[in-house]
Design brief:
The chain has helices at 44-52, 74-80, 97-105, 111-120, 125-128, 139-151, 169-185, 197-200, 220-228; strands at 2-13, 16-28, 33-37, 59-64, 67-68, 82-85, 92-96, 132-133, 157-161, 189-193, 205-210, 213-219, 239-242, 247-250. The strands form four sheets. Strands 6-9-10-3-11-12 form a six-stranded mixed beta sheet, with helices on both faces. Strands 2-1-4-5 form a four-stranded antiparallel beta sheet, covered by helices on one side. It has a two-stranded antiparallel sheet with strand order 7-8. The protein is globular and about 45 Å long. It is α/β, with parallel strands linked by helices and 251 residues long. The chain is 33% helix and 32% strand. It starts with a strand and ends with a strand. The chain contains nine helices and 14 strands.
């Protein structure tokens, strides 16, 4: 289980302090899916970075299975069992996709395993296995490859920051099936930042973040109807637009 208790994050903006995250607390149970949603700029990605150690909280604590990991490095958290997929994935000039997958797994992966990982995110393995993970790949291609790197290793908790961004609907459907498999067959906990209704419907719990604060937190059955009905939303922050494949929030 991961627990965040009273997280604060303050930055120095040209000599003036600005608080980005205000007293945020929540938990992700073993084998559960927590979906974090809310308006753009509300602090969702910042919370993900605090959990992974990319940014350090200025207040509060983070626990993984009862161990205080607040001061652990990114590498330390990875070794403790946390995986992370960025909203905008980094690129690696000179590194092949196959090598990147093996590094993520912590061992040399057979070609078939690499191919299966790429296929799971909607990429043709033959076209990508020996390509470099650099600027020659589109944003959507790099996004899918990074998600495959998280799938390459079993984690206690995997964090995905808007995994649907930049991928087509067919690949999105495959991605949802992979999330379901991770929870069902690998018994992993997932924290997914998303605006997609289909992903929200997978959640065990939903955390709504706005203006750096917890606006709402509870079970899917408690929170999702309120979101779809447009209830409990901060005035002027976001509205809900639904479509066949889901909805997104707009500022």
């Amino acid at each position: 289980m991961l627990k965040a208790e009273h997280l604060h994050y303050t930055v120095d903006d040209l000599g003036a302090e600005e608080t980005i995250i205000h007293d945020v607390s929540f938990a992700v149970g073993d084998g559960e899916i927590l979906v974090v949603t809310g308006p753009n700029g509300g602090g969702k990605s910042t919370i993900a970075k605090l959990l992974m150690g990319i940014a350090q909280p200025t207040g509060g604590q983070i626990f993984l299975n009862g161990q205080d990991i607040t001061d652990l490095s990114i590498d330390g958290r990875s070794k403790a069992g946390i995986g992370f997929a960025f909203q905008q994935p980094p690129r690696f000039k000179g590194m092949t996709v196959r090598r990147l997958l093996s590094l993520a797994a912590g061992r040399e992966l057979p070609e078939k395993v690499c191919c299966d990982l790429l296929s799971s995110v909607g990429l043709c393995a033959r076209e990508y296995l020996n390509r470099e993970a650099d600027q020659t790949l589109s944003g959507g291609e790099m996004k899918r490859i990074e998600i495959a790197t998280v799938f390459a290793k079993k984690h206690q908790l995997s964090i995905f920051d808007e995994p649907e961004a930049g991928i087509d609907l067919w690949s999105f459907s495959m991605l949802v099936r992979q999330f379901e498999m991770m929870q069902r067959e690998r018994d992993e906990s997932l924290l997914i930042i998303s605006h997609q209704e289909r992903i929200l419907r997978m959640a065990d719990h939903i955390l709504v973040i706005a203006e750096g604060k917890v606006q709402n937190f509870g079970t899917r059955d408690e929170i999702l109807p309120q979101i779809l009905a447009g209830q409990n939303q901060p005035a002027g922050c976001f509205c809900v637009r639904r479509g066949e494949e889901g909805f997104h929030h707009e500022a």
